[in-house]
Design goal:
The structure holds two protein chains of two kinds. Chain A is of the alpha+beta class. Chain A contains nine helices and 20 strands. In chain A, β9 and β10 form a beta hairpin. By secondary structure, chain B is mostly helical. Chain B has a single domain, classed as Orthogonal Bundle (MetI-like fold), CATH 1.10.3720.10. Chain B has twelve helices and no strands. The longest helix of chain B has 34 residues. The relative contact order of chain B is 0.14. Classes of the chains: A alpha+beta, B mainly alpha. Chains A and B meet through β6 and α2 of A and α8 and α9 of B.
């Protein structure tokens, strides 16, 4: 178990606000943030590459705040792999063993070979790094990080330098590895898709602050702020006014009006997940109390689904539907229709 | 339009290349085997060439031992007054070499503190090989230091950081990662420093006229006997240096190609 208690630091103009985070065995943490959000700074702090100004870091109740990186046993893998170009694949993987003072030739050969076989790169062991594909380099880097059984695996944008196909392959590999190795993983990325596929815990970082942390489901269902909502891929976020009418809360943005679960009177921000919007050619009688007249502006694929861009009295609204729906309803630009959604599916910030 | 522009560049650049190459080719070309043999069997010439190569090698070793750490610090550690130190390192390049010799003399001469300090160990810098070595070191060290600095700068910080997380101490990172990756650059800097040391005249002659390094010998023969007695020594030195540098470059490139 690794515990961050109020860990913070200042680097030039950048300030990382105190972070509290607990990484447990079996947890795969996704640290989601944009460029400059401070996600890599936090990773460097945990790795021990930067000293925190305040706060403490614990590993199994042991205070390791002032321990140098080489004595933490947290191995790191980075976007451009940071392999050692002067060493062979074998020597790259053997590096962590050698610097730990392991001398036995057989012992090293055995450990490296086993790890390489596990990663499917045993055929490459004798080679140099020239000519390795991105995916192969990635596997070498992973083997090198795992050969010493670390207490925490730190991944800094590990998939960002790969093409889509290789990336999918390695995501699958990472999932399996995580199940096999019973260690916590902290994976930094800007890519929500990647995060939701791999992580079972997620923290959103922005401007040096952790905005929200929890399970990915919790973040998607109850995003704490419009920013988190945007990051987890929720569309249709509106700023407008909330009014109260006969005990019901109504949201108004321009001429668009709909009912929301609750809300303070005055200015407010709400989101309607595009998947929760039902499209119909005639108004439908259902328990959903919000039905808006709309016109189709554009239909675009969002594999495996389709995005339907609508116009509701001059305000854009996006609905996500299946391909079958698009062809069955004959959705095409200019088509007038009705967009229906439940009051409960509207998220209020 | 573009053609005319390129022709002008080719002419200007070509003129410079000719200017650089023709005199050396002519001098070396004037040397025939009989003359070369005669001059090489002149013990004074022979010993002078060996002395020059040896002293420049010592200077390079000295420069290597101190310049590699300095280059590493300049490249990797943002210490205070780093720019000032960098400027100081470049100083010998812009100082006239006889002035450098005089400056050295005022520290390492018999009556100055450096000279007194080392005389306690039986080392004197005036009229000795040690004098030649420090003169060569002074004027040629910047080549090695800057090459080492550039070579270390070329080692990505990320690679060094990842090495730390993999369990390597700062010293292990240096010996196992940074130094091996920077070695090629450092080696070519060392070669440059050695070459620069061999060719040094101004600073050496102030500290040590005798024993004579080859550039001093060439000067002396020219003054005393004229061109005919000076050019074969010059040509021999150029040939020997070219042969040695080609050999080292060849060895280095073979080492680099090894998987």
């Amino acid at each position: 178990m690794i515990v961050l208690k109020g860990l913070s630091c200042r680097l030039g103009n950048f300030r990382l606000s105190p972070v509290d985070l607990t990484l447990e065995k079996g947890e795969y943490w996704i640290l989601l943030g944009q460029t400059g959000s401070g996600k890599s700074v936090l990773l460097s702090l945990i790795a021990g590459l930067i000293r925190p100004q305040e706060g403490k870091l614990f590993k199994e109740d042991q205070d390791i705040t002032s321990l140098p990186p080489e004595r933490r046993n947290f191995t790191m893998m980075v976007q451009d792999f940071a392999l050692f170009p002067h060493l062979t694949v074998f020597e790259n993987i053997a590096f962590p063993l050698r610097v730990r003072g392991i001398r036995g030739r057989e012992e090293i050969r055995h450990a490296v070979t086993r790890m390489a076989e596990r990663m499917g790169i045993d055929a490459l062991l004798g080679r140099g790094l020239e000519g390795l594909s991105g995916g192969e380099k990635q596997r070498v880097a992973l083997a090198r990080a795992l050969v010493v059984s670390p207490d925490l695996l730190l991944l800094d944008e590990p998939l960002s330098a790969l093409d889509q196909v290789t990336k999918r392959e390695l995501m699958e590999e990472l999932r399996i590895l995580h199940r096999e190795y019973d260690i916590p993983v902290l994976h930094v990325t800007h890519d929500f898709e990647e995060g939701i596929t791999l992580g079972n815990r997620m923290a959103v970082i922005h401007d040096g602050k952790i905005l929200q942390q929890g399970t990915p489901e919790a973040l998607c269902v109850r995003p704490a702020s419009p920013f988190v909502a945007t990051l987890v891929g929720i569309r249709n976020i509106y700023r407008g006014t909330v009014e109260s009418q006969e005990g019901r809360a109504l949201f108004r943005r321009g001429k668009m009006r709909f009912e929301i679960p609750s809300g303070q009177e005055g200015e407010g921000v709400v989101a309607i997940p595009s998947e929760d919007i039902l499209l119909s050619l005639e108004p439908i009688a259902s328990s959903a109390r919000n039905t808006l007249r709309a016109i189709v502006r554009e239909v675009r694929p969002r594999p495996p689904l389709m995005d339907v861009y609508l116009d509701v009295v001059g305000i854009p609204l996006t609905a996500t539907v299946t391909r079958q729906t698009v062809s069955r309803m004959g959705l095409k630009p200019g088509l007038p229709l009705y967009a229906t959604f439940k009051v409960a599916s509207v998220k209020v910030f | 339009m573009k053609r005319g522009f390129e022709i002008v560049f080719w002419m200007l650049g070509g003129a410079l290349v000719l200017f650089l190459v023709v005199p050396l080719v002519k001098m070396v070309g004037a040397l025939d085997v009989a003359t070369a043999r005669k001059f090489l069997s002149d013990l004074e010439v022979y010993h002078s060439i060996l002395l020059t190569l040896r002293c420049a090698l010592w200077a390079t070793i000295l420069g290597f031992v101190t310049g590699v750490p300095l280059g590493y610090l300049l490249a990797k550690r943002p210490f205070p007054f780093r720019n000032l130190v960098q400027a100081a390192v470049d100083l010998p390049v812009v100082v006239p070499h006889t002035a450098a010799g005089i400056a050295l003399l005022m520290v390492f001469g018999r009556h100055f503190f450096g000279g007194k300090l080392f005389s306690a160990f039986g080392i004197s810098f005036v009229g000795t090989e040690a004098g030649i070595v420090i003169a060569m070191t002074f004027v040629s060290a910047p080549f090695l230091i800057n090459a080492a600095r550039d070579a270390f700068s070329g080692v990505p910080v990320r690679v060094e950081q990842v090495a730390r997380t993999l369990g390597a101490s700062p010293a292990q990172v240096f010996y196992r990662v940074s130094l091996p990756l920077a070695l090629r650059g450092i080696f070519s800097g060392a070669l440059l420093m050695w070459a620069r040391g061999i060719s040094e005249f101004g600073a050496v002659i102030i500290l040590t006229y005798h024993p004579m390094v080859t550039p001093v010998l060439i000067f002396e023969r020219f003054e005393a006997y004229g061109l005919k007695f000076a050019y074969p020594i010059a040509a021999l030195l150029v040939l020997i240096c070219l042969a040695l540098f080609s050999l080292f470059r060849f060895l280095a490139s073979r080492r680099g190609k090894k998987p």
